[in-house]
């Protein structure tokens, strides 16, 4: 029977620790009623409270969707659940006993899964009834469940196909997870490879005498790994926890597995734990903050040069076993192939760790997964690697990597040998392909694309855009809908991008009935081109800045008046001008974790492209009175409002209540396209109404009350907002007039030293200056 997508309305989670409570919080944020059980109700309630405090819920009020109770007395609360997740201690006896209890109360067809990361499904269901085994899975979430997209899914020979289908649909569409099917093996995919990498990273550093700082510099940016690097990640996970994770793998894997070559707890780790050095949670591990926070540190370069800079961190030196000022090695920019080939401490360490890690990954397919692309997806999403192990091998050159492995005396995995000069990935027929094991050999197959997903990399392989410039492209995404993709650095609005927007608005009716604006980057748009604006300000180029401001206003007004629907699809940051763009489109589809806001005050400016007027209109449309709407906009613009998620954006009227919050970012563009198709039938552009503005005294009094808490330049911005947002409380004022007021004020403050200082500071540090 095919699963039709009926939504799970109630879920149960047993175990209110970090993972269990986090899973419950994420389910609740996604609109599901949840029962959270622990040994007693108080423990469950404390788990919810921790999630509220740590941001596990997308909105604090979503905690009301969680019912907390005791497993001893309230197991019956699970009887109408659609899915029950077990997240208790990693002991097979405890889990089996719990599953037997669940089986006595669950309704027929209720899915039961374990969040275990170490115990195979075959062992969990060994004593289970036929009915329970058919509904059982392993659903391995990553921490924190709200933010980590990866979910490793393990099914067994007794699991019903319908169970897998139903669970996959729900976790994908409702919880927003990327599902990676795994074999029923210890550690599954990400932790099997990740724990080996961590064990090798520490072990090889100690063997080669590599400092923690150099190890982290190598195992960071050069390979596209997070900046925590190697020793920093040990600190983050916990020096007390890492040995147990590695040891559990070693106990579960055969004696010949490569992970057995490394000590789970080297003598250094034991010595640190004896001193209470457990990592970040204990205030110190391999790194800590110095006592006076004013330590001067030496920064040796890759080739022996050095420089000195202020730093407040110290390093626990593995050799002297003493704290010393933290060093900051500077590695020259080079690709990974050149790095591992370099005869330097950094190069030798990179080869020692990554040759073994990549070879280990290549040897594990098809043991842990059917395909290399599944492994790469798991490592990208589970460990935040920019490229997975097979993608990294292709960067090194698969044939060259295999040759050096052999010269180094390391075994060359069968799949790696088969990759040869062609590598693991290629393309054919407009599709990306991957080398997949097949019998005793390997074949190239298309990389599977989930149904109802529109991905820009696939579009780029499959064909050419309708038109493209240095700043943007227009793509055909089917169903008579075009996709407007921004292509500037950080997708900032430059004069070239504004020109491309105007061209798109002309070209779209010739090819399409509707338009989606979106991209696949980490930033939807960081706003206006601050570098260009600062340069014009410093040159006192008043005509140039006035023209840039007018171009933005005219372009966004044309966007709002387009004779076809435009749906904004923001999957990531939409700040400043990026937010103003979304305030002008017909409708918005926002990924639930996208941040959106009008942050111009943080660089000493106001939203200059109609954002003030459009946000004010959104408040009026939401039913606020003219006075309350003006107060909300005044306060938000002055503080540089940012909504950290889609639901917060709705609450703050940055998107409409009718706009869509999309859980799975991979489905964002497809969702926006389908919505654009619906809107296209009988579409007419909205004519923005005029709005009534309150008396000047309303906002002037608020500003006066805040004077002591505002910086000098914020007082200037506040005074400008008072004039912009004030009227006579009776006469309607057009949005164009409000924007004209902003323009006049903008062109005054942009040439002040205080605004220039704020822009320069933001460009240099990424942080706002309060001057």
Automatic annotation (TrEMBL):
Associated pathway: Lipid metabolism; fatty acid beta-oxidation
3-hydroxyacyl-CoA dehydrogenase NAD binding domain span: 11-185
Gene3D superfamilies recorded: 1.10.1040.50, 2-enoyl-CoA Hydratase, Chain A, domain 1, NAD(P)-binding Rossmann-like Domain
Alphabetized GO MF terms: (3S)-3-hydroxyacyl-CoA dehydrogenase (NAD+) activity; NAD+ binding
Swiss-Prot/TrEMBL GO biological process terms: fatty acid beta-oxidation
Pfam families, per database record: 3HCDH, 3HCDH_N, ECH_1
Alphabetical list of CDD domains matching this protein: crotonase-like
Keywords of the record: Fatty acid metabolism, Lipid degradation, Lipid metabolism, NAD, Oxidoreductase
InterPro entries listed in its UniProt record: 3-OHacyl-CoA_DH_NAD-bd (IPR006176), 3HC_DH_C (IPR006108), 6-PGluconate_DH-like_C_sf (IPR008927), ClpP/crotonase-like_dom_sf (IPR029045), Enoyl-CoA_hydra/iso (IPR001753), NAD(P)-bd_dom_sf (IPR036291)
Protein name: 3-hydroxyacyl-CoA dehydrogenase
């Amino acid at each position: 029977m095919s699963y039709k997508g009926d939504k799970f309305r109630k879920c149960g989670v047993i175990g209110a620790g970090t993972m269990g409570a986090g899973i419950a919080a994420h389910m609740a944020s996604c609109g599901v009623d949840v029962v959270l059980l622990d040994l007693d109700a108080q423990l469950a309630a404390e788990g919810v409270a921790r999630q509220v405090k740590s941001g596990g819920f997308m909105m604090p009020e979503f905690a009301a969707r969680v019912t907390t109770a005791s497993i001893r007395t309230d197991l019956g609360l699970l009887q109408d659940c659609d899915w029950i997740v077990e997240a208790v201690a990693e002991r097979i006896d405890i889990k089996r006993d719990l599953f037997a209890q669940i089986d006595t109360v669950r309704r027929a067809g209720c899915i039961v899964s374990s969040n275990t990361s170490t115990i195979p499904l075959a062992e969990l269901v060994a004593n289970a009834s036929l009915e329970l085994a058919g509904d059982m899975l392993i659903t391995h979430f990553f921490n924190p469940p709200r933010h980590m997209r990866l979910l490793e899914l393990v099914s067994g020979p007794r699991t019903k196909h319908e169970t897998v289908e139903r669970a996959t649909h729900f976790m994908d569409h409702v919880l927003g997870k990327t599902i990676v099917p795994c074999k029923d093996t210890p550690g599954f995919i990400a932790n099997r490879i990740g724990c080996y990498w961590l064990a090798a990273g520490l072990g090889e550093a100690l063997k080669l005498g590599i400092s923690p700082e150099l190890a982290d510099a190598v195992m960071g940016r050069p390979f596209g790994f997070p900046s925590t690097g190697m020793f920093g990640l040990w600190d983050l996970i916990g020096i007390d926890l890492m040995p147990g994770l590695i040891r559990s793998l070693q106990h579960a894997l055969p004696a010949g597995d490569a992970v057995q070559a490394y000590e789970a707890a080297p003598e250094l780790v034991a010595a640190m734990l004896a001193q209470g050095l457990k990592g970040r949670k204990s205030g110190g591990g391999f790194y800590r903050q110095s006592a006076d926070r004013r330590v001067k540190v030496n920064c040796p370069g890759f080739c022996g040069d050095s420089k000195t800079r202020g730093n407040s961190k110290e390093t626990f030196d593995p050799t002297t076993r003493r704290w010393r000022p933290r060093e900051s090695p500077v590695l020259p920019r080079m690709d990974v192939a050149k790095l591992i080939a370099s005869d330097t401490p950094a190069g030798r360490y990179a080869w020692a760790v990554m040759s073994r890690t990549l070879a280990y990954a290549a040897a594990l397919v098809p043991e842990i997964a059917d395909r290399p692309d599944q492994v790469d997806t798991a490592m990208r999403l589970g460990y935040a690697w920019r490229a997975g192990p097979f993608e990294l091998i292709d960067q090194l050159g698969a044939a060259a990597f295999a040759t050096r492995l052999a010269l180094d005396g390391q075994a060359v995995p069968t799949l790696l040998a088969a990759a040869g000069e062609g590598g693991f990935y290629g393309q054919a027929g407009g599709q990306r392909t991957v080398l997949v094991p097949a019998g005793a050999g390997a074949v190239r197959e298309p990389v599977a694309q989930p149904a109802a997903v529109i991905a820009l990399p696939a579009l780029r392989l499959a064909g050419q855009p309708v038109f493209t410039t240095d700043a943007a492209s227009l793509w055909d995404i089917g169903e008579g809908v075009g996709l407007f993709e921004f292509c500037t650095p950080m997708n900032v609005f430059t004069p070239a991008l504004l020109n491309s927007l105007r061209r798109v608005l002309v070209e779209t009716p010739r090819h399409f009935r509707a338009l989606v604006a979106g991209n696949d980057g980490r930033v939807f748009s960081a706003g206006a081109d601050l570098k260009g604006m600062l340069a014009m300000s410093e040159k006192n180029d008043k005509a140039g800045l006035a023209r840039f401001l007018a171009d933005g206003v005219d372009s966004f007004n044309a966007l709002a008046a387009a004779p076809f629907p435009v749906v904004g699809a923001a999957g990531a940051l939409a700040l400043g001008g990026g937010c103003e763009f979304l305030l002008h489109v017909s409708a918005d589809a926002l990924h639930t974790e996208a941040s959106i806001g009008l942050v111009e005050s943080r660089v000493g400016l106001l939203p200059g492209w109609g954002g003030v007027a459009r946000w004010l209109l959104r408040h009026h449309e939401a039913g606020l009175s003219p006075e309350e709407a003006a107060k909300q906009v005044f306060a938000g613009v002055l503080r540089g409002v940012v909504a950290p998620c889609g639901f917060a954006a709705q609450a703050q009227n940055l998107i409409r209540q009718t706009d869509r919050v999309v859980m799975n970012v991979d489905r964002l563009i497809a969702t926006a396209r389908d919505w654009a198709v619906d809107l296209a039938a009988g579409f007419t552009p909205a004519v923005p109404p005029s709005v009534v503005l309150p008396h000047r005294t309303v906002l002037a009094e608020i500003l006066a009350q805040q004077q002591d808490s505002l910086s000098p330049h914020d007082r200037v911005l506040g005074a400008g907002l008072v004039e912009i947002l004030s009227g006579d409380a009776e006469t309607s004022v057009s949005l164009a007039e409000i924007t004209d007021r902003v323009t006049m004020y903008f062109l005054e403050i942009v040439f002040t030293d205080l605004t220039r200082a704020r822009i320069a500071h933001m460009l240099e540090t990424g942080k706002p200056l309060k001057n």
